[in-house]
Structures are given as structure tokens and as C-alpha cells.
Amino acid sequence: MAAIREIERAAFADHPHQANAADPVEPRIVDRLREAGALSLSLVAESNDQIVGHVAFSTVHIGERSCGWYGLGPVAVLPAYQRRGIGGTLINGGLTRLRGWGAAGVVLVGEPAYYGRFGFHSDPRLTFPGIPPEYFLCLPFGDTVPAGVVTYHDAFAAG
């Protein structure tokens, strides 16, 4: 979808970790997830009949097996609409939907201060190579947290 691609591009264009601000990777991730049929949940936010935000969830593997966990991301809001709670509403909506599906939990790479408000925290049982552990966060929906290396869909690997 062109509108989602533009939201992802605009939201991440000036991100400090972006290798190429003119061509951020997040729009390609969403496109590749969709093309592979691996975009488990995709929610949008609208304002005045315009799509202004998007969040994606896809399944992850932990220790080389699928165990009902999902990866959150990317999540993006058009710059003119940021800091209005749209991203948080999208995230909460996605988490509620996943809980309803019987998901076991969600992982993400992100800022602990922001995602902590949703209940995300680091857990040494879940690892993601190349990311400092304090930025790899999880939100279990039950008492069980599997142990192992988390692997996202291949759509995240190719830049």
C-alpha cells in the first residue's frame, strides 16, 4: 500500500540509526512481509480520511521454533501527527488483538523508556544478536517466557 509505505518513509527519514535517510529500510520491510504473506497483523490510524499511522506485527521464532510469539515493528506515524498518542493507540490495539488470538507474547527492538509504558522489558532468556540486551524487549502474555535466540522473518534481514 502506497499510503503505508509513505508513512514508514516519512517517519523514519530522519531517524538517527538510519543508514540512508532518503531511503529508510522500514517501508521495504513492510512490503516484503506483505509479499511473503508474513504480515500477521497490520493496523492503520486515520485522521480526516487520511492514513497517518501504521503498526505491523509478524511471527518470530525462538530457538528455531514458532511458539506463539510475535515481533512488533515497524510502527510509524507521519511526523505532523506524532506526539498525539497515535503510535501508542496502534500498539495497544495490536497487543489487544494478539491477546485475543491467544498469542504468547511480543518482542521488539526499541527504546525501553517508551515501550516500558506498555509493559515491555528486557529478559535475559530472550536474546537478539547484535542488539544490546537493554533494547531488546519482551511482553509475555502469560507466566511462561521461552529461552533462546529470537529470529524475525527474512524480510527484516535484507536492507
Can you walk me through this structure?
A hairpin with a 2-residue loop joins strand 2 (50-62) and strand 3. The protein has one domain (2-156): Aminopeptidase, CATH 3.40.630. Strands 1, 2, 3, 4, 5, 6 and 7 form a seven-stranded mixed sheet that branches. By secondary structure, it is α/β, with parallel strands linked by helices. The protein is globular and about 45 Å long. It has helices at 2-12, 26-35, 86-101, 112-115, and strands at residues 41-47, 50-62, 65-77, 105-109, 126-127, 136-140, 148-151. It is built from four helices and seven strands; from the N terminus they run H-H-E-E-E-H-E-H-E-E-E. Helix 1 runs antiparallel to helix 2 (26-35).
Uncertain runs with pLDDT below 50, 5 residues or more?
none
Number of strands: 7
CATH class: Alpha Beta
Strand content: 25-35%
| Coarse morphology | globular
Radius of gyration: 15 Å
Structural class: alpha/beta
Mean of residue pLDDT?
A: 90
The profile of the biggest β sheet is: 7 strands, mixed
N-C termini distance: 19 Å
Number of domains: 1
CATH homologous superfamily, by name? Gcn5-related N-acetyltransferase (GNAT)
- The appropriate CATH architecture is 3-Layer(aba) Sandwich
Q: How many helical elements?
A: 4
- How helix-rich are the residues, as a percent range? 25-40%
Strand and helix order = HHEEEHEHEEE
CATH topology: Aminopeptidase
